[in-house]
Amino acid sequence: MHVTLIGTGNTARGIGSRVLAGGHDLTVVGKDAQRAEGVACDIGGEGTVKTAAPGARFVKAFNTTFASPLTQGEVAGHTLDVLIAGDDDEAKPKVAALARDGGLKPIDVGPQARARELEATGLLHMGVQDTLGTSFASALKIIV
């Protein structure tokens, strides 16, 4: 599968690392060509600059896991959970497969309307970092 990441920050590096670990192709897209190429080269993909994505599909995923744990693929020996929300019945399983192929555990949390809750969950996770003292190296885990 070919994946295009929009963004050149630490999260792009983390997600990109998992995409490549799963054996998939990766393109990194950003406003600055040199930065996109630098990120892609750092993690072994290719970098390009683009401005529009006609026909793009939307699935919310990966925002509740920090870049460093994504790059490592685990925290304290535990597989990372990837919470996925979306309405696209074709794209959602593909994102789940990307997560699984990269050594992560995908969890479907429901429709695109849940994206707002995933944003709040990510913010809460960021908010407790000082209390935990983990320097953004922690992860959220659903245990059943």
Model description:
The protein has 144 residues and is an alpha/beta fold. It has two domains: 2-48, no CATH class; 67-132, no CATH class. Helix content is 40%, strand content 19%. The protein is built from six helices and seven strands, in the order βαβαβαβββαβαα. It has helices at 10-21, 33-43, 67-72, 91-101, 115-127, 129-132; strands at 2-6, 25-29, 46-48, 74-75, 78-79, 81-85, 105-110. The strands form three sheets. It has a three-stranded parallel sheet. Strands 4-5 form a two-stranded antiparallel sheet. Strands 6-7 form a two-stranded parallel ribbon. Strand 4 and strand 5 form a beta hairpin. Helix 1 (10-21) packs across helix 2 (33-43). The longest helix is centred in the C-terminal third of the chain and has 13 residues, at 115-127. The radius of gyration is 15 Å and the shape is globular.
Brief overview:
By secondary structure, the chain is an alpha/beta fold. 40% of the residues lie in helices and 19% in strands.
Topology readout:
Layout: E1 2-6, H1 10-21, E2 25-29, H2 33-43, E3 46-48, H3 67-72, E4 74-75, E5 78-79, E6 81-85, H4 91-101, E7 105-110, H5 115-127, H6 129-132
Taken from the alpha-carbon principal axes, the silhouette is globular
Give me the secondary-structure category: alpha/beta
One letter per element, helices H and strands E, the order comes to EHEHEHEEEHEHH
Low-confidence stretches: none
Number of domains: 2
